[in-house]
Amino acid sequence: GNSVTQMEGPVTLSEEAFLTINCTYTATGYPSLFWYVQYPGEGLQLLLKATKADDKGSNKGFEATYRKETTSFHLEKGSVQVSDSAVYFCALIGSGNTGKLIFGQGTTLQVKP
Amino acid sequence: DGGITQSPKYLFRKEGQNVTLSCEQNLNHDAMYWYRQDPGQGLRLIYYSQIVNDFQKGDIAEGYSVSREKKESFPLTVTSAQKNPTAFYLCASSIDFTLKENSPLHFGNGTRLTVT
Predict the structure, then answer these.
(1) Mean pLDDT per 10-residue run, chain A (113 residues)?
(2) Could you tell me if A101 and A46 are in contact, meaning their C-beta atoms sit under 8 angstroms apart?
(3) Surface-to-core class of residue B39, CB atoms within 10 Å of its CB (0-12 exposed, 13-18 middle, 19+ buried)
(4) How many whole angstroms separate alpha carbon A40 and alpha carbon A30?
(5) Phi, psi of B78 (to 5 degrees)
(6) Please, which residues have CB within 8 angstroms of residue A58's CB and are 6 or more apart in sequence?
(7) Does any CB of chain B come closer than 8 Å to the CB of residue A41?
(8) What are phi and psi of B34, to 5 degrees?
(9) What would the pLDDT profile of B69-106 be if each residue is shown by its tens digit?
(10) What pLDDT does A57 receive?
(11) Residues 6+ apart with CB under 8 A from A82
């Protein structure tokens, strides 16, 4: 079945450091891929998405490229801020399985001043 | 402003009691969802509803029940049959069940339930 695996956290970085959070997936066909962010005490917000191979999703300085050959959708940001501290979830929806997002376990990012 | 409202933010119950979590949306969305979040396990789907008066079990429905009598409301009842009910519960909605490119999930801010 479909599944998503994220790197374990927490990830602790200093302000202005480069961020990578790894995400790999297992799915048949051509899934759509998403990154959601959860700030402390809140629900999840859609950060970015990509719906076909080689698409790059981007938002608020974050980027992720849909790599079908490596079944990956790694999240990157060139210079993190303290305000980026949150939990990040990678997710997919299968091409033949509408309505049910499959989430990874989440990766906590802590950015220190 | 349109959005999803979950109440209360914190809820405490004694073991053996049923408890109902509220979820209301004014986004005019057809589809609504309940997820459970536990540390290190991501989000797991409890129930979902594609349209009013319809709902389906998700991956971990045992010990839970829902209703969808109105489009804007999708309450979740955690029954005494749920073995480990303490968790963070998130309600979500989308324009429709297909979750197409322009209809991502919108989440409420969650209810943290503690059962002792």
Answers:
(1) 89 97 92 93 91 94 96 97 96 75 93 96
(2) no
(3) exposed
(4) 32
(5) -95, 115
(6) A48, A64
(7) yes
(8) -120, 130
(9) 999 999 999 999 898 999 999 999 998 777 665 567 89
(10) 95
(11) A15, A111, A112, A113
**Chain B residues with CB-CB distance to A43 below 8 A:** 4, 6, 90, 92, 107-110
Q: Which two tokens stand for residue A89?
A: 């979830």
Reading the block at residue A77, the tokens are 């940001």
> How far is the C-alpha of A42 from the C-alpha of A57, rounded, in Å?
23
Question: Looking up tokens 């299968």, which residue turns up?
Answer: A94
- Chain A residues whose beta carbon lies within 8 Å of the beta carbon of residue B109: 41-43
In sequence order, what are the residues at sequence separation of 6 or more whose Cβ sits closer than 8 angstroms to the Cβ of residue A76?
A18, A19, A20, A21, A62, A63, A64
The percentage of residues in chain B with a pLDDT greater than 70, rounded to a whole number, is 95
For residue A81, the one-letter residue type is Q
